[in-house]
Amino acid sequence: MADQEQSASLSDQLQQRLDRLYRLVGAAREKDLGKFPARVIATEERIGIEQDFCGGMTEDQIADAIYLMLDAIVHLKDHVKNRLVEKGDDPKAMLNAAKRCDDLRICRMLVNQAKHGIPTDCDPSDALSLSEVSRPLRMTVGGKHGKTSVMRLVNRDGVPGADVRGGHAEVIFSTKVVDGNDKALGNVHDIALRAVNFWYSQLQDLGFELPAEYE
Q1: Residue 171 burial (C-beta neighbours within 10 Å; 0-12, 13-18, 19+)
Q2: What domain range includes position 53?
Q3: Angle at CA 15, nearest 5°, toward 95 and 115?
Q4: Do 18 and 214 contact (CB within 8 A), yes or no?
Q5: pLDDT of the chain along its 215 residues, tens only?
Q6: Which helix (H) or strand (E) holds 26?
Q7: Which of 33, 36, 38 is nearest to 48 (CA)?
Q8: Prediction pTM value
Q9: How far is it, in rounded angstroms, from Cα 164 to Cα 86?
């Protein structure tokens, strides 16, 4: 009974950590367009609109939010390792799997290089950075004929809404990860989500009980 209670407690602790990671990744996507009002410029003759979707965040603030997310993803490894040791299990297999995960490796390199800088003797393919830091509106539609995705301003105050048919609209941290050769490795949000999904799969394989809604 004591072993079962300890196992349940460790699963709860890891679930809380995993919940936080999914919230951080989820915070990089916002579907409530009402949080990003446009600025209406009105005169007697005409009405103009100025719109962006940064939500008042500067490029540096967006990058800081991204690095906070990546740091939490990378350091879940230490928490998982400690919980395995508490269970009396060898964490070696988990550590080896983490090393083989390309998405987690990219997250780790970005975090380490942001903290300590890029070594002067670093191979260009390992010198990673964020490029084109932005927070645009992304609208997607289905591939069938007649599918549309339309954005409209719902009132004169400039509060935007999305009239979406056959697709969806969301504001996303759309920032590329590039190496020293300016080769794009992917979108940081997609990389981060795959890394969190890796942790979810690993924790299940290690015998920790996690909710099915992550799947």
Answers
A1: buried
A2: 2-214
A3: 55
A4: yes
A5: 444 455 557 677 778 878 878 777 766 666 777 777 666 777 887 777 666 677 777 888 888 888 988 999 999 999 889 888 888 889 999 999 999 999 999 999 999 998 888 888 888 888 899 898 877 666 666 656 666 666 665 555 556 555 555 566 777 777 899 998 999 999 998 899 899 999 988 888 887 776 665 54
A6: helix 2-27
A7: 38
A8: 0.72
A9: 50
Domain count, the chain: 1
d(CA 84, CA 101): 19
**Locus of tokens 């939490």:** 72
> Which tokens in the block code for residue 166?
């056959």
Task: Report residue 120: phi and psi, to 5°.
Answer: -65, -30
User: What is the DSSP code (8-state) at residue 38?
Assistant: P
Cα–Cα distance measured from residue 149 to residue 140, given in angstroms and rounded to the nearest whole number:
7
Under a CB-based contact definition with an 8 Å cutoff, are residues 177 and 185 in contact?
yes
- Side-chain-side CA neighbours of residue 29 (13 Å): 16
- The CA-based angle 67-172-178, given to 5 degrees, is 50
Q: Which two tokens stand for residue 75?
A: 């350091």
CA dist 151 and 39 (Å) reads 15
